Amino acid sequence: MTPLIRSKGREMAQAKSAAGASRSAPTRTRKSRPAKPPKNNAAELLPFYRDMLLIRRFEEKAGQMYGMGLIGGFCHLYIGQEAVVVGMQSAIGKGDKVVTSYRDHGHMLACGMDARGVMAELTGRIGGYSKGKGGSMHMFSREKDFYGGHGIVGAQVPIGAGLAFANKFNGTNEVSLTYLGDGALNQGQVYETFNMAALWKLPVIFIIENNKYAMGTSVTRAAAGISLYQRGAAYGLSLIHISEPTRLLSISYAVFCLKKKKIKKKKRTKKKLKK
User: Fold this and answer.
1) How far apart, in whole angstroms, are the C-alpha atoms of residue 72 and residue 117?
2) CA-closest candidate to residue 184, choices 152, 161, 137
């Protein structure tokens, strides 16, 4: 395994300089909750294109640096899936929580986290979001409502439900976006979470990013059945299927509709929950 870049002398001075630059760099702020889904016009679509292009170029550079031995540990790239997270993030607002799996660089950037801070973490520098100690799979930002980055397959799903439970307990209108891949759909904790989310009517949206190969095994060899999203039907979850994840507007409209449905449901107060 390539060691993290933590050499002394000049490189350490550069790391400290990068840390200052990362913390002072302007980052995008998440807008208020949109009143309606985005329209098919240049004014609204151009920022989406910029976000997707940022993710693509970032991942290309991360892959190059990983091959050069400048990034230690694991490095799971998000190339080809950019429209999924950009479409989802375009329909949520400030206060909505996001949690995902180990393939998380794109989600961080879509949440508005600074690209320099993410790259600093990948290369093990003090200016990273986890001070260079978390690496590719373990970055967090409460300021941007991003709760990881989790290395254990499926572990983020119950965490996402917990974030949704907190939102409901506190009587807010926020929702939790919980991303998972096709490889996580065979984990028992995922179905326990589906059951609890349905029973307690939690404001959580589960997004299955089916790239057909998880980490390297074809979904046809690992999962019985083809339509993974239909597994939620057994728990009475509302289901939306988008066959082409590059259709950004379709993804954005889908999450907008789901969010509207979630926040319209009667909110349970702290008193009722304690009973």
Assistant:
1) 16
2) 152
The total number of residues written for the chain in this structure: 275
Q: At what angle do helices 10-24 and 115-122 cross, to 10 degrees?
A: 150
List the single range of 98-107, 162-171, 244-253 with lowest mean pLDDT. Answer: 244-253
- Structure tokens, 74: 């694991």
Q: What are phi and psi of 2, to 5 degrees?
A: -70, 125
State both tokens at 233: 């039907």
Please give the Cα distance from 259 to 2 (Å, whole number). Answer: 43
pLDDT digits over 173-193, tens only? 899 999 999 999 999 999 999
| Rounded Cα distance, 93 and 271, in Å | 27
Distance CA 191, CA 196 (A): 9
Grade residue 64 by pLDDT with cuts at 50, 70 and 90.
Answer: very high
Q: Count of CB atoms within 10 A of residue 222's CB? A: 13
Residue 8: per-residue pLDDT? 34
pLDDT in tens, 89-102: 988 888 999 999 99
CB of 208 closer than 8 Å to CB of 229: yes
